[in-house]
Structures are given as C-alpha cells and as structure tokens.
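Homework help board

Subject: predicted structure for assignment chain

Our instructor gave us this sequence and asked us to write out the predicted structure in token form, then describe one feature. I got the tokens but I'm not sure how to describe them. Can anyone check?
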Amino acid sequence: MVKVLLGLFCFTIAQVLALKFINPPFTPNVVWEWTESVIENRPHNRPSYKWKDIETLSPHLRRAVIAAEDQRFLSHNGFDFKEIKNVLNNLIHHKRLRGASTISMQTARSVFLLSSKSVFRKLAEVYYTILIELFWDKERILEMYLNTVDWGTGVTGAEAAAQKYYSKSAKHLTPGQAALMTAVLPNPHKWSVKRPTPYLKARQKRIMEDLHRMPLL
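My token output:
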C-alpha cells in the first residue's frame, strides 16, 4: 500500500510539473464526451476544444472571469477562506448553499478529474489545487482555466465557446460579450449565452461594473 501511494504521489507530481510547460491536448471530460459520441454514433455531438495561449485571449474575458469567479484570485493560495466563511454564514442564516470554488480549484477539477459529485473527487480536487498552487504561477493557472473550463455541452474552453456563441475568436470578444460568457459559468448547462434570462443579464451588468478593477494577467 505504501508503494502504491508513493507511486501515485510521484505520478501526480510529474503530471503537474509536465503541464507547467506543456499545453494539454485534451481534458478528461473531453475524452469522456468524445468516447460517448463515438459509442452512440453521434458525430455532431463531438466535443469542441481549442487551446489558445493567454495573450491571445481577450483581456476583457480574462478580467471578467476574475471579476465573476474569484476576485481574490491573486491574494489566496488556492482556497478563499473568506468566501468559505461567507458560504457557511449564508447556509446557517438563510439555508441556502452556494459554491466557494476558486479559479485554482476549478482548474484542478477540469484539467485532472472527471465531473462527479463524489467525496473522492472533492478530495482529489483539493490535493491537485495544492499542487498547482505550489508549481504553477497565477498566470498559468488562469490560462489553464480559460482553456479547460466547461462552457456548455460539448464546449470546452474560451476559444470553443467564443466560436460557438459569437462566431469569432476569443481574442476579439467585447466587454459585453466577455461578461455574458462569464455570467453563465456557474451553470453553463442551464443558462444560455444565446438566450440570456433577466437574471443572467443582471449578472452580466455586475461583471461589467467590476471589470476595470480587475488585474490583467
């Protein structure tokens, strides 16, 4: 058992160190969706995934993601304990549970793990978050996030999302487009960029108001 655990530890360290320099050609979820489409003979449902270096992504999108998903991204080490405290207070006083995942945690999830609700996956997410915060800088974490985050069924990453929703490269997104794309991220399979609800438009407006205060990585 000790040898197995040591082997897994060495393997995960090697994974994270390799991806500090190498852009992943796919993610676990992309492989899963592609395999499903082949088995079910649904070629039109093949996942779309296109890597783009961070400097070729719209600065509005880079700022919008930080504004919407993790405004303390540069100041925490992977876990936003202030946000976790707010979530717990909200649960105690208002009986409502909302997420407290940072950009680093979401990156660990999308790059290394399959989507699931298991306790094991959550523990693995915490473990990988610690590793990427140790070995990657914040710019690399954000670059990985923007390229691997789930942006809807069969859509992985900013470039694929921009092409699908606006028929343009993610490099050319306007502030409004970037804010609306980012607004759907908490639930990209429920909310639609093409059919925004009043709630989604309100989220877009709040993100645009925060854009100018966010750092550009």
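Reply (TA_rk): Your tokens look well-formed. For the description, you could write something like this. The beta strands are 48-49, 155-156. That's the kind of observation they're looking for.
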